[in-house]
Design a protein that fits this description.
Elements: H1 3-6, H2 8-27, H3 33-38, H4 47-54, H5 80-89, H6 92-114, H7 120-131, H8 133-140, H9 148-161, H10 170-188, H11 194-208, H12 212-232, H13 236-239, H14 241-263, H15 269-273, E1 276-277, H16 280-294, H17 297-315, H18 321-344, E2 347-348, H19 353-378, H20 385-427, E3 438-441, H21 444-452, E4 456-457, H22 469-483, H23 487-493, E5 497-498, E6 502-503, H24 507-510, E7 516-517, E8 520-521, H25 530-538, H26 551-563, E9 574-578, E10 592-597, E11 601-606
Parallel strand pairs: 3-4, 3-9
Antiparallel strand pairs: 1-2, 5-6, 7-8, 9-11, 10-11
Helix pairs in contact: 2-6, 2-20, 4-5, 5-6, 6-7, 6-10, 7-19, 8-9, 9-19, 10-11, 10-12, 11-12, 11-14, 12-18, 16-18, 17-18, 18-19
Length: about 600
């Protein structure tokens, strides 16, 4: 293959992402430079982790009143690069890293395809085309009135294989793609090199510290291929004993941060992440529901197609058949592992992520079938330079048009909101690290912005701090009471809200501690209200994001609020209310002056 064909693998994503950010800086030109990046940060909930890790702080509190003694248990491998570059270059590093990571995604998928045994030209063509499938589906949806193609794009393609949301899943997927490349080499090699063991070990450790469900799959698969090697060669262990020892040693060394975090983690943090114990009844319920999940027509069709294509590829006596067997082994584990995990694990967290992994592996299978079929039909053709140039121009045009429409639409919808936000931010542009003040806001974005400004945040997200639940409750109750909340206001604030899923404003500090779904409730079911119990009967089994407070817990919090004496040291100096939140209707304390009251925000300042 000519070099100029291969260069499209990095040139296409480079130009697409550069064009995207040129559009962002143009359409959002009325905003401050930092705001332009932050409002287009495609998963801003990871931003506080990036900041704290860049300061080598695994015990963040984002306020000076409480000093945490334990660590956050959030997996850090998916944000380590962001933190490092943020420390050196600041927010602009986000733009640079997006370019680097998206190019890496294209490149790793290309190298994975290339290692399956197909022609280099096919690997290039297949990778470029497949990464643009979500855009094709979006345009096809124009012809489909029931949004069928858009559903496939958003729920399958965008959310899994081609989701450029980072740090996760983009970065964790990159570790997994790299792992697959070296695992495939390991599988196909009679005598795997020592470097192969080392890279597999490092990548396996990084996967563990970025996405536990991918690690479970990767660990099982690697052990299986070790057993296959042993079955083919009874002396395999003896020949590779030193390599296996190095593999284990390197894995332990690179996993030390993970062990350190979980050994000294804040006790309440695991519950806020959604961890809960599972007894025999829950296990039985989960096993039955998981079995039903797989026992439906779409999975029967999927598995049938995978098997049919196996015999097609074998009929053509293709050298890629071993790579396809490699894939089928991995796919089989995506079906088996949820059952194994339920049986042996005493705890569970975000069980639905097993199905996210399954969908990711499913898409890899579609990709392999796609490129193998192309290789069958085009193996005798010689790709000309003009052909790749034509494909490149078409894909660049389609993706650029997609981003133009998306950014133009988002800017049009949010322009007034962002202008009001800019007005509020401008009022306190002088705030810096030298003059820390207490900030309270019901807006996640406002809190993230002032975390960036290194201020004291009085209503932080429970995921981002290593404070205890009691400390977070004090910060919340003290702020609300200082602002003028009475008992009725506070009761309305902590009432459960039932829609397609159950939610509560207290989830801002408690995360998923108060889980409320059809296989686990934090409190005894009899302690919930009639609406909550009715919701459970219609709740989907794998909808694990729902939370709800019991009647007794609401009473306890009301008592805590009633008895609390305002601590002046942590009274909010600045209060920014996002009017889109309909639970912030209260009479403001006379201690505060109204500074700004525009369409979307109200800004209050503590009187001196």
């Amino acid at each position: 293959m000519k070099f100029q064909n291969k260069q499209f693998i990095w040139l296409l994503p480079l130009l697409i992402i550069l064009f995207k950010w040129i559009l962002i800086f143009y359409f959002y030109r009325d905003l401050d430079f930092n705001l332009r990046i932050l409002v287009n940060f495609n998963d801003l909930s990871y931003f506080p982790f990036i900041i704290s890790l860049s300061e080598y702080n695994l015990s963040p509190a984002f306020n000076e009143y409480f000093k945490p003694t334990n660590l956050i248990a959030f997996p850090i491998a998916s944000i380590v690069f962001h933190s490092f570059f943020y420390k050196i270059f600041g927010l602009i590093s986000y733009v640079v890293l997006e370019i680097i990571f998206v190019i890496s995604a294209y490149s790793l998928i290309y190298f994975f395809a290339k290692n399956t045994g197909i022609k280099n030209n096919t690997a290039v063509f297949g990778t470029l085309l497949f990464f643009s499938f979500p855009v094709f589906l979006e345009y096809l949806n124009i012809l489909e009135t029931n949004n069928f193609f858009l559903h496939i794009k958003n729920q399958i393609f965008n959310y899994h294989l081609f989701e450029f949301r980072y740090p996760r899943p983009l970065v964790s997927n990159l570790y997994f793609y790299g792992f697959l490349i070296f695992l495939l080499k390991f599988y196909n090699s009679h005598e795997p090199k020592r470097s192969n063991y080392i890279f597999l070990s490092i990548l396996l450790s990084l996967i563990l510290q970025s996405f536990i469900y991918l690690f479970i799959l990767s660990g099982f698969v690697f052990c299986t291929f070790l057993i296959i090697k042993l079955m083919k060669d009874k002396n395999f262990i003896e020949k590779n004993l030193k390599n296996l020892f190095i593999f284990l040693l390197v894995f332990i060394i690179f996993t030390l941060p993970f062990f350190y975090q979980y050994l000294f983690a804040e006790g309440d943090y695991s519950l806020r992440m959604g961890l809960f114990p599972i007894d025999l009844n829950i296990k039985k319920n989960l096993l039955i529901k998981t079995f039903h999940h797989f026992l439906n027509l779409k999975y029967f069709i999927l598995i049938s197609n995978l098997i049919i294509f196996y015999f097609i590829f074998r009929k053509y006596n293709l050298k890629i058949i071993e790579s396809y067997k490699f894939y089928l082994i991995i796919f089989s584990y995506t079906v088996c592992i949820p059952f194994i995990f339920i049986i042996i694990s005493p705890y569970l967290i975000w069980f639905k992520h097993f199905f996210d992994v399954k969908n990711l592996i499913f898409l890899l299978g579609i990709f392999l079938i796609f490129i193998f079929v192309i290789d069958i039909f085009l193996r005798k053709l010689k790709f000309q330079r003009w052909f790749f140039s034509f494909v490149f121009i078409v894909l660049l045009t389609l993706n650029s048009t997609h981003y133009y429409n998306l950014i133009y639409k988002n800017n049009s919808l949010n322009k007034n909101y962002l202008n009001d936000l800019q007005e509020v931010i401008n009022e306190y542009k002088f705030i810096g690290t030298e003059n820390k003040i207490n900030i309270f806001s019901n807006s996640q974005f406002i809190n993230y912005f002032f975390i960036y400004k290194k201020q004291n945040i009085l209503f932080p997200n429970g995921f981002h701090v290593s404070l205890s639940d009691d400390q977070l409750e004090i910060l919340m109750i003290n702020s609300l009471k200082a602002l003028g909340f009475n008992r009725s206001n506070f009761k309305n604030f902590i009432q459960n809200k039932i829609s397609w899923r159950s939610s509560n404003e207290i989830g801002q500090i408690t995360g998923y501690k108060y889980q409320f779904n059809s296989f686990y409730t934090y409190f005894n079911i009899d302690n919930y209200g009639e609406d909550e119990i009715k919701f459970l009967k219609n709740n989907k089994i794998f909808l694990s994001e729902s939370i709800a407070l019991s009647q007794s817990e609401i009473s306890r919090l009301l008592t805590e609020f009633q008895n609390h004496k305002v601590i002046s040291k942590i009274k909010p100096n600045i209060v920014i209310v996002d009017k889109r939140k309909n639970n912030f209707d209260f009479i403001v304390s006379e201690d505060y002056s109204e500074i700004i009251n525009n369409k979307y925000f109200i800004l209050y300042s503590l009187k001196k």
